[in-house]
């Protein structure tokens, strides 16, 4: 499903924007904004639900305890009253469904930006080498890798898989060739011959695990030498992997610290991600009662995640997407945090703020039954 969304939705959008402005960096920015706008109603539902639950949760917990105590001997009445409570304030799980619905698109977007044309694409084949006298008893199970859309020009791309018709279990002395081919069965090498500079996208093969167990030639032919487990990798260069954008040296560059040198463009992107995440989380608490535990978590979480991404191998193009997406999320959170609440929740919020000596945050003219211009009209 993720591959289908990437090939039939995200890459065509990418092609469109690259056709308007021939810059893959700008194409990433435009693609991110389009997807975030398309998902706005879903993510807005999650933000609204989280905001309302943050206000209602103390009251709901108190009322739930009272209902369970009052109707401890009447399970049917207890369930009825708990259901009425959910109708009054909404379900705490209401914000989860929009997140689940948008996850396939976000995963597909993430996969698109990690592959061609923004990064080199690896095809990994895990092999098990058995003694030659044992291999005859093994039933062959054909192997096909996950597909990747490979760009061979700025506008020409093809879904490509790696295959081993006889499977990944080989006997010592066996020699097999790993085939790279399109979904229609055309050999990738023959496809490259149709393009003037196609040869520069030929896969570069190497043994990444189990040297001495197998050898691999430049055309992907594997020679099984001795029993054991081995991994062979064929890497196809990404056409834009080494293209720069603004301060980014290469969209496919991976790693904050590589070969004794600091990649400052990666450091800036990771720092930008952490800062925008902190801003978004701070805005989510705007106009809310003080919550020391939540405030501490909002400060620590961006630091932890930012520290992780300093050493997590993400290409610069993916980090660029994450920064732009966080900026969009912060803007969305700011707008929705100023929305008028339902009357019952507004009263609860005012009581909570009054108890802490705070004034309620002024709301915009956007009411609870309205939506922003690009949201579909609906109820609450």
Question: Care to describe what's here?
Answer:
This protein is of the alpha+beta class and 380 residues long. The protein folds into two domains: 212 residues, no CATH class; 116 residues, no CATH class. The strands form four sheets. It has a four-stranded mixed beta sheet with strand order 5-1-11-8. Strands 2, 3, 4 and 7 form a four-stranded antiparallel beta sheet that branches. It has a three-stranded antiparallel beta sheet with strand order 6-10-9, with no helix packed on it. Helix 1 crosses helix 5, helix 2 packs parallel to helix 10 and helix 3 packs antiparallel against helix 5. The two termini are 31 Å apart. The C terminus is likely disordered.
Produce a short descriptive summary.
By secondary structure, the chain is an alpha+beta fold. It is 48% helix and 16% strand. It has 2 domains: 212 residues, no CATH class; 116 residues, no CATH class.
Described by the principal axes of the CA atoms, the overall outline is elongated
Oligomeric organization of the protein chains: single chain
Our measurement of the CA-to-CA distance between the termini, rounded to an integer number of angstroms, reads: 31 Å
Largest sheet: 4 strands, mixed
State the secondary-structure class: alpha+beta
Low-confidence stretches: 363-374, 376-380
What count of helical segments does DSSP give?
Answer: 11
Radius of gyration using CA atoms only? 27 Å
Order of helices and strands: HHHHHEHEEEEEEHEEEEEEHHHH
Q: Determine the mean pLDDT.
A: 77
Helix content: 40-55%
Number of strands: 13
Number of domains: 2
Classify the beta-strand content into a percent band: 15-25%
Strand arrangement in the largest pleated sheet: 5-1-11-8
């Amino acid at each position: 499903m993720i591959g289908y969304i990437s090939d039939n939705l995200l890459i065509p959008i990418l092609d469109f924007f690259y056709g308007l402005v021939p810059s893959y960096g700008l194409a990433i920015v435009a693609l991110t904004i389009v997807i975030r706008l398309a998902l706005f109603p879903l993510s807005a539902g999650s933000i609204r639900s989280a905001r309302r639950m943050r206000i209602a949760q103390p009251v709901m917990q108190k009322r739930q305890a009272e209902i369970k105590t009052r109707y401890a001997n009447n399970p049917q009445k207890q369930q009825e009253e708990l259901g009425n409570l959910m109708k009054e304030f909404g379900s705490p799980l209401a914000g989860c469904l929009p997140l689940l619905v948008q996850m396939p698109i976000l995963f597909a977007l993430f996969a698109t930006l990690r592959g061609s044309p923004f990064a080199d694409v690896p095809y990994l084949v895990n092999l098990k080498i058995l003694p030659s006298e044992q291999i005859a008893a093994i039933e062959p199970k054909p192997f096909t890798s996950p597909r990747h859309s490979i760009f061979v020009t700025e506008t020409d791309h093809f879904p490509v898989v790696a295959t081993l018709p006889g499977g990944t279990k080989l006997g010592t002395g066996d020699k097999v060739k790993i085939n790279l081919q399109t979904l229609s069965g055309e050999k990738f090498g023959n496809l490259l011959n149709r393009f003037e500079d196609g040869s520069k996208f030929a896969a570069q093969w190497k043994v990444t695990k189990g040297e001495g167990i197998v050898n691999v030639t430049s055309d992907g032919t594997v020679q099984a030498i001795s029993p054991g487990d081995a991994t062979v990798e064929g890497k196809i260069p990404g056409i834009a992997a080494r293209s720069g954008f603004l301060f980014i040296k290469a969209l496919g560059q991976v790693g904050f610290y590589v070969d004794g040198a600091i990649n400052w463009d990666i450091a800036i992107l990771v720092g930008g991600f952490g800062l925008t995440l902190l801003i978004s989380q701070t805005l989510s608490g705007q106009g809310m009662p003080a919550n020391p535990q939540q405030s501490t978590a909002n400060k620590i979480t961006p630091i932890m995640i930012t520290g992780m991404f300093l050493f997590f191998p993400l290409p610069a193009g993916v980090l660029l997407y994450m920064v732009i997406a966080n900026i969009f999320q912060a803007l969305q959170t700011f707008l929705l945090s100023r929305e008028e609440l339902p009357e019952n929740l507004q009263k609860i919020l005012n009581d909570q703020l009054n108890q802490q000596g705070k004034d309620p945050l002024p709301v915009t003219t956007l009411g609870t039954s309205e939506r922003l211009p690009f949201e579909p009209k609906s109820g609450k």
